[in-house]
Amino acid sequence: MAATQGTELAVEQETALEVRPDTGPALRGTPPARAAGELASLMRAGGMDEPALRATGVWLVSGRRSSAHTQAAYLRDVGWWVWWCTARAAKAQDPTPRDADLYVADLVASGLSRATVNRRVAAVSSWYRYLVREGCVAANPFEGAERPRMDTRHSRTRGLTKQQVADVLAHAAEHESARTYALLWLMFATAGRIGSLLSARVEDLSEDSGHRVLDVTVKGGQSKRFALPPPAVAALDRYLAERGRPGSGPIFVTRTGRPLVQSYVWKLVNRIATECGVPFTISPHSFRHSAITIALGEGRPLHVVQDFAGHADPRTTRRYDRDRDALDRSPAYQLAALVAPSTRPG
């Protein structure tokens, strides 16, 4: 009996090896769909019917996907899955749980981070839940699918130290444009996501209770008001003065008036970081990571930093606390002082 089971397992293993990702489609790089029309073409090529296409259009603009940035991210993630199904000869309209498991395995083997894998799977699972509700598919193949275990204690993003942030800002003040200097200040001072800051508009700047503030659309499509500290205000005012103080439109634009794109900012921050001697690759998100980490390291209360970062769960904020296990922060010393008997001088 045991020998028979072992033989069956070996056969299953050999079958699985036939579809390993080293001979399958690459799942990183340029997304197969970056616009609604491209996704529709992928879905039709994958055998999906028109009711599913129409339901997908509604899904993309409903719920938590109200912002253009969020919609674009979900569209790309669904596009990767539909493209994978076509490449693997799987049916996107009627996939099996085994298809879902193999897709997750291919994502992991492609070298993507655990966070990226989980995000892509979560997006496709949300899509299928909607299609099931609309009667377009029979079941969600990702329901109950195993996903890579996330490190819930620490963020994997590379952040900058206080000195490195100061060096980057000082370098930008002396050697970069007013636009770059203002953008870097806002990225750090607001801990804002780069997509939100690039979508911010001049008319979103105002005053509130003596503070200069900026209202931006954040993750989930909600609006959040950021207080701007004096150095950020000065940098922003200088940049807008150079632009002739426009009354409306995106804050950060090219010389021809087009909004800046994230790919440009990625290259920009890495070039400046390299010039400042930062020994590792960073991303725009590194400034958000740095702001949260530094605030926690300086002893700001967790709930205050959580609100500043816009995290729904305090456990997310805690991941940025590099000193959470530091022995000199242990409350044991304060507790002992409260109960230990006082000693009298001899």
Would you write up a description of this structure?
The chain has 2 domains: 19-133, no CATH class; 162-318, Intergrase catalytic core (hpI Integrase, Chain A). Helix 4 (68-87) crosses helix 6 and helix 12 (285-297) runs antiparallel to helix 13 (302-309). It is globular. It has a 3-stranded antiparallel sheet with strand order 1-2-3. It has helices at 2-17, 36-45, 50-61, 68-87, 97-109, 114-133, 162-175, 178-190, 194-199, 230-242, 262-275, 285-297, 302-309, 314-318, 332-339; strands at 205-208, 211-217, 223-228. It contains 15 helices and 3 strands. It is mainly α. Residues 47-132 form the Core-binding (CB) domain.
What descriptive keywords fit this protein?
346 residues, mainly alpha, hpI Integrase, Chain A, three-stranded antiparallel sheet, 15 helices, 53% helix
Question: Structural class per helix/strand content?
Answer: mainly alpha
CATH architecture of the largest domain: Orthogonal Bundle
Please indicate the percent range of residues in DSSP E strands (runs of 2 or more). under 5%
User: At the third CATH level, what is the topology name of the largest domain?
Assistant: hpI Integrase, Chain A
Largest beta-sheet characterization: 3 strands, antiparallel
H/I helix tally: 15
The helix content is: 40-55%
Number of strands: 3
Number of domains: 2
At the first level of CATH, what is the class of the largest domain? Mainly Alpha
How far is it from the N-terminal to the C-terminal residue, by CA?
A: 81 Å
Spatial order of the strands forming the largest sheet:
1-2-3
Unreliable residue runs: 1-23
Organism: Actinomadura gamaensis
Protein name: Tyrosine-type recombinase/integrase
Domain Core-binding (CB): 47-132
Keywords: DNA integration, DNA recombination, DNA-binding
